[in-house]
Amino acid sequence: MDYRGAFLLMVVLTVMTLCIKTLYLSYPWTENSEVNEMHVREFNSFKVQNINCKRILDGEKTEILRAKSMVPKGIPDDETVLRHTANCVHFRTLYGYDNIINTVEEQQFPIAFNILLYKDVAQVEILLRAIYRPQNYYCLHVDGFSPDPVHKAAKSLADCFDNVFIVSKTENVVYESFQRLKADINCMADHLVKPDWKYLINIPGQEYPLKTNAEIVQILKMMNNTNDISCTRGVGAVLGRILFKFMNVYGENGTYSIVNTGAMNTKPPHGIVVAKGSAYGVFTRQFVKYMINNQIAKDFLEWCRTILSPDEYYWSSLNYNPHLQIPGAIKGKGKDERIKGSHLFHILSKY
Ligand SMILES: *[C@@H]1O[C@H](CO)[C@@H](O)[C@H](O)[C@H]1NC(C)=O
Ligand SMILES: *[C@@H]1O[C@H](CO)[C@@H](O)[C@H](O)[C@H]1NC(C)=O
């Protein structure tokens, strides 16, 4: 072989090597197939196989009991989620994310979700799989106090999707703290940057929907740009939590507890009558925009800093003070007797 022939052969071999390498890397099933096969085996072991869903939906006791007996004990740990999401293409294919039915009606009605979690990312993944659609947005707030593996697994899961993200500012959440409310607010602010979505729903990581995304879209459309936020006023509003000033007392290790200072709280600003609701609700985009940007909402949020469980007061109060004329909120004055019974205004919060 002459000099030129050898050179040509070298060029051909180099190009071939590069091609094979590119193909190899872009084809997920061949890349480390032993690992992938293990993931398939593990994933199948988490599933309840060979049950008859129709018979279960028809309420057949024997099939329900049979299915119950097959439910795996516990859920996969955070390390498993981390391993399975290391190869996103393989993960999405295996877990069925690329085969989700997504009607045109759903595609034209994107929803933003806040998911607050502190443990068990595998359970959050099961929830995500139930509500995941490419046009929706999902903000994951992982508690600042959660151990590292939870943060790592949640980040790895989020990184497998363009429309799932970790909140830009993480709060250290203690039960009944202002930080619990702030975690939702931080996700809401992040969501507002995203275009198109019509409604925002906040849920905890341990929730599971009883309706499909398509059904949720139809219900939200019927709500015609109004919120669904529950509300109780008067004695039911648990006044002890709002009459006194509460504050966080920080320990040496960064944790804190909430104590009642015994001092009386000031009146809420802007003539707001406090209404107690749930930490969870269904909010129109315009209402979220108001909560994040409007000065009245910001003033009221500051006032909420010194009450207990402000997540059960902030949006319900903004929703049930018609004089503020907030988009999506209650418009009429409403008789107080009617407002007292939260169920009267409670449509979808627990869909
Ligand atoms: C929906 O809201 C608009 C604007 O507030 C109103 O004009 C319309 O009547 C509402 N539609 C229904 C079906 O309630
Ligand atoms: C932090 O300190 C508090 C008391 O100040 C204690 O109750 C708690 O268990 C500690 N937490 C950790 C993670 O060490």
Automatic annotation (TrEMBL):
Pfam families assigned: Branch
GO CC terms, sorted: membrane
Pathway assigned to this chain's UniProt record: Protein modification; protein glycosylation
Major localization listed first in the record, in broad terms: membrane
Keyword Transmembrane helix: yes
Keyword terms of this UniProt record: Glycoprotein, Glycosyltransferase, Membrane, Signal-anchor, Transferase, Transmembrane, Transmembrane helix
GO terms, molecular function: acetylglucosaminyltransferase activity
Coiled coil feature spans: none
Membrane topology reported for the UniProt record: Single-pass type II membrane protein
Membrane-spanning parts: 7-27
Localization, UniProt: Membrane
Domain of life (superkingdom): Eukaryota
UniProt KW rRNA-binding keyword: no
Recorded family membership: Belongs to the glycosyltransferase 14 family.
Designated name of the protein: Uncharacterized protein
